Amino acid sequence: MRKLMVTGGAGFIGSNFVRYMLEKYPDYSIVVYDKLTYAGRLENLQDVAARFAGRYKFVRGDICDMELVDQTVQREGVDTIINFAAETHVDRSLMDPGAFIQTDVYGTFVLLEAAKKFKLERYHQIGTDEVYGQVLKSRSQEQDNLEPRSPYSASKAGGDLMALAYYESWGLPVTVTRGSNNVGPYQYPEKVVPLFATNALDNEPLPVYGDGLQMRDYQYVIDHCEGIDLVLHQGELGEVYNVGTGAEMTNLEMTQIVLETLGKPESLIQHVADRAGHDRRYALDVSKLRALGWESHHSCAEAIIKTVRWYAENEWWWRPIKGGELYQEYYQEQYGKRLAS
Ligand code: NAD
Ligand code: TYD
In the annotation, is 130 catalytic? Predict the structure, then answer.
């Protein structure tokens, strides 16, 4: 495993993973293959391009484009695909489910075909805890039934199961990780923690869906990257590994932490109409990954505080996004009526 193709590497987790891997493994090279949707940004990798010029390459492409995927894998001598590329936001999946099915299911199939055709050493699929559906009690284990409830999680379940099907059917060397909610630098400000941090910095309301008692496991993105790295090097083929802190908090608790970190008042909290089909709680059992020697280094609270501080110190990154027309249109559609009523 020397030549990795990281699909979706210009997004939030992908760009953190690329930086982490190039720093840790001086003999690895990485080709980032990314369509650069609204969520993919070359700014996320600008330091990487400068620091690792000889070992890093960027190719703009769609994972649904079989010809370009095949060509890139062959031309670059790729031996491993790690697939982060996806449409990733639940609220957007309620507006336009088709894009999610296309990228998260069909795109995954295209990458799996390439891995099979060119006999790659490894295919790793980045999955999500959302495929288990909401778990009101106890914690999801890897063998639990998948009961996704949103177009996003249903599409991710499709990709995840397709990867496992390639292992069962053709012995493709596949591994899958299912991560909980990530926070950290370079997360597009549509996801709740960067949205709330940047709104609070501007003294704008924080739109809490419903009663705000939904629970999530917020993990620091580098902890997640370490988990993926461990599974890549020591995970068993055909196996799934959960990655998260193994603890969770309510959205109101998360919101309080954001406000306290920035010294902003609770009056910024605005309860708004709930998300359709909002999953009440996700909770992971992470003992399988811990048994490989992995530990999360940040609690949910530590992860959120560190993230909020990054947004406070890196306005250069998020101001142009939030000021852009695309973002404003999205914000209006998602929050316009909610915040007005
Ligand atoms: P993101 O939305 O920040 O980035 C997604 C990236 O994929 C972008 O760079 C985008 O340009 C690219 N992309 C989208 N469609 C593409 C296509 N058709 N072809 C090529 N590139 C395409 O997402 P993220 O938060 O970094 O998530 C990365 C992966 O991790 C996803 O598979 C997601 O489901 C999974 N995941 C995310 C979280 C989380 O909390 N963010 C948690 C668990 C799992
Ligand atoms: P989000 O970051 O969209 O991730 P998930 O994929 O887990 O839904 O949302 C995290 C939680 O925050 C989830 O319970 C929905 C809630 N939320 C709000 O209350 N308001 C918001 O504006 C957003 C985007 C999310």
Answer: yes
Assess whether 131 and 101 both reside in one domain.
Answer: yes
> How far is the C-alpha of 69 from the C-alpha of 105, rounded, in Å?
15
Quote the domain boundaries for residue 319: 189-216+247-282+299-330
Pocket lining: 90 vs ligand 2, CB cutoff 6 Å:
yes
Name the pairing type of β-strands 29-34 and 56-60.
parallel
| In a shared domain, residues 87 and 151 | yes
Closest CA to 280 of 232, 214, 337: 214
Closest ligand 2 atom to the C-alpha of 91?
Answer: 3
Query: Whole-angstrom Cα distance, residue 196 to residue 272?
Result: 14
| Residue 152 a catalytic site member | yes
pLDDT in tens, 152-199: 999 999 999 999 999 999 999 999 999 999 999 999 999 999 999 999
The answer to whether 6 and 33 are in contact (CB under 8 A) is: yes
> Pocket of ligand 1, candidates 5, 6, 12: which has the most ligand atoms within 8 Å of its Cβ, to mutate?
12
Which ligand 1 atom is nearest residue 130's CA?
43
Residue nearest (by alpha carbon) to ligand 2 atom 6: 90
CATH number of the CATH domain containing 51: 3.40.50.720
Q: Tens digit of pLDDT for each residue in 53-98? A: 999 999 999 999 999 999 999 999 999 999 999 999 999 999 999 9
The answer, yes or no, to whether any atom of ligand 1 lies below 6 A from the CB of 82, is no
- Can you list the residues of the chain whose pLDDT is less than 50? none
Does pTM top 0.90 for this prediction?
yes
